[in-house]
Amino acid sequence: MATNARRTQSKPPISTNGARKNGVAHSATKGVHGRLWKDSPKPEVGNWRVKSGLAQMLKGGVIMDVVTEEHARIAEDAGAVAVMALERVPSDIRKDGGVARMSDPELIVRIMQSVTIPVMAKSRIGHFAEAQVLQALGVDYCDESEVLTPADTEFHVNKWDFKMPFVCGCTNLGEALRRIGEGAAMIRTKGEAGTGDVVQAVTHARSVLGEIRRIQAMKEEELMTEAKKLGAPYELVLEVRRTGRLPVVNFAAGGIATPADASLLMQIGVDGVFVGSGIFKSENPAKMAAAIVKATTHYKDPEVIAEVSKGLGGAMRGLDSSKFAPDQRLAVRGW
Amino acid sequence: MVATGGSRIGVLALQGDFAEHLAALRSIGIEGEEVRKVSQLEGLDGLIIPGGESTAITKLMDAYSFRAALPRAVADGLAVWGTCAGMIVMARSLTDPYPKPLGLLDIKVSRNWFGRQVDSFESDFKFKGIRGKPIRAVFIRAPVVEEIGDGVEELAVLPDGHAVAVRSGRLMATAFHPELTDDRRVHRYFADLAAAKDGKTRD
User: Is residue B44 a contact partner of residue B170, using CB atoms and an 8 Å limit?
Assistant: First the structure.
């Protein structure tokens, strides 16, 4: 949980392209802003600081997958910092097979109306039209997610086009920096969603954080070649070396199922956790949710983790992700 | 910054952007302290309640006994500054039925007043007691002050008159996030307030 100067800077990570200094310059004219600033300069909405800033407010918190309004209220009551509105949790998507798409807008809106915390929703990789729909609904964060079936085998969404912020998954540093280069304002590990098997999230978090430490030890003349190897924007590699962390908030996701799992990832060095199937596929979701929230706050305190882990009932039934055939792995989706 | 010398400032580290506040304090020469347990309030001159989700923060404050301990510490002279979620936590009451605020500061607060994340914004504000250019204020799913009690002073207001920064004695709250910009004047303002035990800042 190292802090750095980046957090307090107003500049976005891409400094070479003037047009993108603040993402797209959206000016606020509708809704409350239209009435409020009649005779004053219009405020700036949807700029980089505001988009990456919401992720900063989620730090040290737990984001939970929910499929009904009741789930959403249970999550909020347990202390979730945001919910991910879905039709099916990842373990059911995995079981059901077929094509997994953006959720029904009606469900997303009902969940938005049932809680006061931010609501996230998923679009397919590269499906900018689904993302446009989510922005039109007023969704607070879009997860361009490998859990859904990709819509484009080559290109991700150009996230600079949106005033709604995006979170994207990654398995290593190069992938994380490519997504940030495309405008992602928050990063998460991919892990292996819907398994309850934490090993892939650990692998991806260690990979990202280990590569950052390796770059910090490099000389400046080595960085262009390193950027080429990583397939990452050079400017962002320079920034990572200077600050010692990703330019945006970095959560763990994919397989977290217990309070100790959350503590493990937090101690490895992520800023917070997503819990997908792990809450509502456990025996006592309300209790599990509250326990993972406490474990994420007090991740350094094993006595607290022990206390909150007592009498939780069964965690979700897991799947050993090392036994998966290549086509069962969601983490390989995305480029 | 003579006035801030030697004062101890904590940042409530249950959830939210506490690391950003600690970095901001460090840049003005103050080594802030993470506060996760009530025992860590001991000996502090000031406490910052950071941005985050007010529902999550109040939940964790209840679970770890801050609801009883914090008002006692304030009565003993602790200076407190809440940013965004921190303002909500400090309020006397909210327009929403939940979460239940701590009632440290006599204001009524409306959560998410500007709308959803797509309405989050930044703009310039005059801040009473801070000289020079306006403050660049970042509002993220921000609240506003709907009602203000006797003895609470407005430090910054919206064009329609809603307060977005207030102070009463050693307590202050901002609806926006000075920790997300490079301008350290609001952090200095609070550090001075925390250092001035009689409740008066240097100006």
Answer: no
- Distance, in Å, from the CA atom of A187 to the CA atom of A165, rounded to the nearest integer, reads 11
Cβ atoms of residues A132 and A157 within 8 Å? no
**Per-position DSSP letters for A290-320, written without gaps between them:** HHHHHHHHTTT-HHHHHHHHTT--PPPPP--
Handedness of CA A300, A304, A308, A310 (dihedral sign): positive
Helix, strand, coil % (nearest 5) of chain B? 30, 30, 45
Range 47-76 of A in CB contact (< 8 A) with B: 47, 49-50, 53-54, 56-61, 76
Domains and CATH numbers, chain B: 4-195 (3.40.50.880)
Instruction: Write out pLDDT tens, residues A73-88.
Output: 999 999 999 999 999 9
- For testing the chain B interface, which of A11, A37, A45 should be mutated: the one with the most B CBs within 10 Å? A45
- B20 contacts on A by Cβ (under 8 Å): 3, 7-8, 56
pLDDT digits (tens, 9 = 90+) for B118-155: 999 999 999 999 999 999 999 999 999 999 999 999 99
Q: What residues of chain A, 110 to 169, have a C-beta less than 8 Å from chain B?
A: 112, 116-118, 135, 138, 140-141, 163-165
pTM of the shown model: 0.93
* Structural tokens at position A289: 């949710």
Q: Is A122 a catalytic residue?
A: yes
